[in-house]
From TrEMBL:
<feature type="signal peptide">
    <location>
        <begin position="1"/>
        <end position="21"/>
    </location>
</feature>
<dbReference type="InterPro" id="IPR003787">
    <property type="entry name" value="Sulphur_relay_DsrE/F-like"/>
</dbReference>
<protein>
    <submittedName>
        <fullName>DsrE/DsrF-like family protein</fullName>
    </submittedName>
</protein>
<dbReference type="InterPro" id="IPR027396">
    <property type="entry name" value="DsrEFH-like"/>
</dbReference>
<dbReference type="Pfam" id="PF02635">
    <property type="entry name" value="DsrE"/>
</dbReference>
<keyword id="KW-0732">Signal</keyword>
Amino acid sequence: MKNISIITILLILFGIGSPQAQTVNPEKNNYLVLSKNIQQLKPVMLTAVELAKQDGNNYGEFYLIFCGKTVQGILKDGEFLRLAKQAKEKNLKIFVCGLSLKKFGIDPKDISEIIEVTENGILDGFQLTKKGFITLTI
């Protein structure tokens, strides 16, 4: 719990990489989830769908960034890739941290085109938070 608080504070103090380059509407409700567990994709996707219903015209962007050791499972987990395709169809944008890929020896070219690679997922989290994204770290 202490680590989540520290990461959240760090995210608030800093900014983001690839997702930051994307245009977002600051007058909409924009969401970001930073996760270290690919098993969280399904519940995050269900949450995004429900928030889109609840927010209606106020719903903006929903980004999910995976960082850490969990990136090793992205290449091997067929269920994850199936869910990632469904998530993309529901306008949930999935990113994987390039620093994490590098740390675990994964070539970004091996990542499915469904998932975008961002250079630094933590930096991206900070930058999106500064842009007003509602942020959760799980």
